[in-house]
């Protein structure tokens, strides 16, 4: 996280005696990154966080990628996916590489346990639904179009409110780091002296929703915490409620940011994708094409120009049916355009958009700097006609 905060009760100094009402010391835990030279938080537990037992292997999370020697544009129709599992077991990885894994989750059951991703940071983008993430740092309430950033090692439980009977179903897109990197705002948005968001940044501290009360759960019993590590999920048993933190302070904690609070940077001519960047991590970035005014030169081309991703693969997740540059994609679609193949607007979309002055689309994009590969689950919802959809181009005369 880019700035310091505190919640609950903490002592005046770090690493000094801090006692419970019964006189027993609280258990201090330094929750740090990068060998304790990166962002960290210091937490105070009612019980020692080392009191765990009953560990066992639950299931493998290692992905089997297919068509690893095939380079083509792809369109996945995630509306074809059936609801399954809870907000962790229901996640279906669709693309991945050595740096990240991404996919879609449409849960249909509740988490009966707490979860910790000990393998990487998580970015959960809420397409539909509301609910609560209860974490060791406090409570986050989430809503439609929220990014939820959950740092590596955070214990949490994600609970969706019941979806309306008439729909839509609860759904989120997820991106997880797989290379030990962390998800942060881009450095160019942050002052290197104070870690404050700069004036040119398209969002700032006021847009971030950080953990709130209730914080501490003081309960004795048997509580399961499932931990993702070593490409597997392992089950551990805690003899107390795992969210037993009485207070904490620091710069490493989960938070929410709503994509509709992103303030797009617009220009006289079409702006490149980096102006839409929201987060960065090791060898990939996350962007949001949010509602915005379109380019205002009298002869501006309003949709993205043809471009070649010579250094990156591009995945776009469509939150609605309003994207003007591509035909045949709809709400819940994912497209993947690999490095090495030029791509751009579909035939007819340039001319049809010339008179537009505003777009209310929302598209989430992840660009990776190493090739992405699909999973078998991706092939099950693949639209194999998509790569041919540019072939019917014919020149349209002006006037």
Q: Explain this structure to me?
A:
- The chain is mostly beta strands and 399 residues long.
- The protein has two domains: 194 residues, Jelly Rolls (Sandwich); 124 residues, Jelly Rolls (Sandwich), CATH 2.60.120.10.
- Helix content is 2%, strand content 37%.
- The chain contains two helices and 29 strands.
- The protein has an eight-stranded antiparallel β-sheet. Strands 4-17-16-8-13-10-11 form a seven-stranded mixed β-sheet, with no helix packed on it. It has a six-stranded antiparallel β-sheet with strand order 5-25-24-28-21-20, with no helix packed on it.
- It is globular, with a radius of gyration of 22 Å.
- The mean pLDDT is 94.
Summarize the structure.
The protein has helices spanning 349-352, 376-380, and strands at 5-8, 27-32, 40-45, 53-60, 74-77, 91-96, 100-105, 114-117, 122-128, 131-135, 138-142, 146-150, 155-160, 171-177, 208-209, 220-229, 232-240, 245-250, 255-258, 277-281, 284-289, 292-293, 307-308, 313-318, 333-337, 342-343, 358-359, 363-368, 373-374. It has 399 residues and is mainly β. The chain has two domains: 52-74 and 82-243 and 250-258, Jelly Rolls (Sandwich), CATH 2.60.120.10; 260-383, Jelly Rolls, CATH 2.60.120.
């Amino acid at each position: 996280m880019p700035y310091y905060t505190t919640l609950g009760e903490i002592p005046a100094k770090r690493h000094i005696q801090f006692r419970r009402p019964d006189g027993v010391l609280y258990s201090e835990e330094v929750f740090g990154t990068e060998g304790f030279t990166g962002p960290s938080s210091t937490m105070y537990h009612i019980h020692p966080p080392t009191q765990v037992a009953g560990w066992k292997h639950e299931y493998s999370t290692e992905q089997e990628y297919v068509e690893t020697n095939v380079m083509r544009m792809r369109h996945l129709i995630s509306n074809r996916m059936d609801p399954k599992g809870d907000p962790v077991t229901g996640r279906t990885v669709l693309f991945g590489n050595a740096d990240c894994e991404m996919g879609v989750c449409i849960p249909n059951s509740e988490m009966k346990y707490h979860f910790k991703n000990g393998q990487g940071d998580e970015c959960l983008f809420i397409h539909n639904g509301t609910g609560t993430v209860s974490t060791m740092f406090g409570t986050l309430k989430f809503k439609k179009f929220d990014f939820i950033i959950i740092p590596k090692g955070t214990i949490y439980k994600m609970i969706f409110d019941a979806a309306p009977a008439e729909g839509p179903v609860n759904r989120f897109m997820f991106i997880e780091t797989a290379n030990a990197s962390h998800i942060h705002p881009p450095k160019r948005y942050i002052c290197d002296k104070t870690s404050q968001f700069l004036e040119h940044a398209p969002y700032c501290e006021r847009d971030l929703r950080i953990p709130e009360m209730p914080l501490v759960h003081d309960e004795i019993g048997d509580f399961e915490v499932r931990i993702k590590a070593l490409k597997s999920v392992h089950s551990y048993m805690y003899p107390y409620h795992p969210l037993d933190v009485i207070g904490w302070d620091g710069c490493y904690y989960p938070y929410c940011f709503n994509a509709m609070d992103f303030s797009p940077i617009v220009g006289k001519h079409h702006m490149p994708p980096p102006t839409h960047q929201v987060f960065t991590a090791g060898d990939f970035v996350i962007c949001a094409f949010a509602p915005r005014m379109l380019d205002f030169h009298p002869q501006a081309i309003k949709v993205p120009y043809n471009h070649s991703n010579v250094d990156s693969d591009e995945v776009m997740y469509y939150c609605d049916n309003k994207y003007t540059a591509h035909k045949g994609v709809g709400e819940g679609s994912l497209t993947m355009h690999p490095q090495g193949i030029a791509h751009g607007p579909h035939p007819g979309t340039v001319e049809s958009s010339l008179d537009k002055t505003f777009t209310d689309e929302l598209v989430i994009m992840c660009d990776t700097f190493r090739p992405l590969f699909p999973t078998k689950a991706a092939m099950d919802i693949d639209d194999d006609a998509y790569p041919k959809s540019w072939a019917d181009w014919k020149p349209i005369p002006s006037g």
